[in-house]
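INFO worker-7 received task bundle
INFO bundle size: 2
INFO processing item 0
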Amino acid sequence: MNFPRVFLKRNEEKEIKGGFLWAFDNELGRVKYFEGNEWRECQFVPKEEGADFPVKDGELVELYTNGGAFLASGIFNRSSKITVRLLGPEKADRIDADKSAFIYKKIFDAWNLRKMHFDQGDSFRLLFGEADFLPGFICERYVAEGCKPYLLVQFLSLSCEVFRKEIISALEKIAEPFAIYERSDADVRLKEGLDLKSGWIKKPKGSDSSTITIVENSVRIQVDLAKGQKTGYFLDQKFNRKEIWKYCRGKNVFDAFSHTGAFGLNAFMAGAKSVLCADISQDAVDLINTNIGLNGAEKIMSSVCADVFDLLKQYESEGKKFDVIILDPPAFTKSAKMIKKAYSGYKEINLRALRILNQGGILITCSCSHFFDESNFYSMLTAAAADSHRRVQILQKRGAAPDHPLLLGYPKSEYLKCAICKVQ
């Protein structure tokens, strides 16, 4: 079969040769396609400049340099600014010959990678999109009490949507899920020309409740697959939450932007003297309180519904102090244009946290925005330390757990920063 060939403009191949898996519409030059028993050629035209085009959205294509050197195969989608999402270095005919085997190998490789770091009873991210060479596809594996594995899947791009049948089939064979829930309800699908969808792909036997309880680091956590934020729970901080145990025994801990209370609950399990969790969302605080109850932590832990920025100001004015403060805020920027504003937000919360830490206290501070990279993050932390007149030792620089691998050449996969600091 003669698959369409998409050619980049001159000098646009460097990032892709370095491992980047996207080709944007403004990087594409000409397209060759087979029609009427012959090859034809046309210039690439974005969809907004012309509705008709010989290559259709969802087609398997081959990507070439402007000079004609083959780079990779991928899925074409003129509805998206990311017009070609790359699947791998194989020629298109090899992928098309056995799509099921091609997808099965990607998922099997991802499964084996996780088995190196996690036990059967652990919850973890099974597929991390581009970082696991399956662009746009996310799969979380949650193990409910009773050792029942639930899968939560997200098809976020056309490049994985076209392989829906093969992906679900492979997951059934490899992961043997008790149930599968879909959360393809992120707005990014609209940019791909796809409708939002959510619901059971495979219902659990005897119940259709989307609320389950998992165990992480000996902590019981309630997860709502249908209504939880993004994929229901942030598995990427699992090892970081365990790492804080060594710093929390006998300490007064403040867990800001607490979300589910997971960091605070790990502090409790470590033997903290007291733990206060704060979040601006009442739904989050209700969930924190549920999780406090699930772990019998009522005598040690409490929660407050408040804007953390305002709460930090209040505690500073009151002279309130903590031994350990955890800052794990949502992403303050989702675009490069907002980095300066994000810098101010991150600096303010870190500055105020530093001011209300006791001498020798521990600050665990995080950022989950890939746009706010490591250079910006540690520059911000340095400025916050200087303005607070505190001396800060960075004890550990940490990132996401190994179920969120970093793909060289794809900077979006390196998004989480977590610094554990001692403050003088």
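INFO item 0 finished
INFO processing item 1
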Amino acid sequence: MSIRITALTDPDCGPSSHRLAWLAARPTGFPVGSAFLRLFTTTGQGHLAEIELNVHPAERRNGIGSQLLAAAVATARAEGRRCVTVQAAADSPGERFLPALGFHKVLTLTFARLTLTQADIAALTEIIRQPHPGYRLESWDGTVPSEFAETFAASRRAMDDMPMGDTDYGTVVWDVARVRAAAQAVEKRGELLHTVVAVNVSDGAIAGFTELVVPGDGKGDGQHYGTGVLPEHRGHALGRWMKAEAIRQAIEYHPDLDGLLTDTADSNRHMRAINDALGYLPTHRTLLYQLDL
């Protein structure tokens, strides 16, 4: 089968990355697949690229995916990247396809969902009311308030040692400008960003955070983003405390919301235990593959 691979212009360009795109089509112009290559540009992740690959199910096993992947990998190599990653659903054809092309599995992610009508409100309330000496909870919507901006940006290093298996993930360097840009990007999409933090009462600095993004109309499912506690403040159950409060606020402020989604690396046993205790139920698994260039 004759397939034409065409490079496209992708407008998805942000402060921390930009994307390139390719379209696979038959000579008639009928599209049969696509590939996107995200090139990270910030300090700590300039070595990394991420591929998203899609081929129409009826067109698979005809070499289309291989051609698209080759175009993306060649560009990543030309851009001086050290590695590229791509995700595949567990028990999908990708589990056979990617290793055959030299990719190796580096991480397994479990996706889970909490149905809000089935949330145990009494249990959540009990978790939130439990004393956490030396800490208090604060929260806000949208962009971080100025009084918390510096310590919130500093608290993002809580994610630096997040279990990532064998992924060559690097580190994400955060400052106030990046924190605000991330919140503005959520707002620009028409979604709502809710943040709950644990504050160290001795100095007023943020010790940990959890973020939740909700559709702009307050319906459907919300999506948990990062949850992290700084190493020097771990061991006080702050992660479970903050996440329980985020769930409570979602139920109170968005009564039409159906559920909350989260994804966690299987190697992150601590966060998986928190999700299990709060009532999240697994829905599916995704495998992350990496090719070292």
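INFO item 1 finished
INFO post-check item 1: DSSP finds seven helices and twelve strands in the chain.
INFO post-check item 1: Residues 238-253 form the longest helix (16 residues).
INFO worker-7 idle
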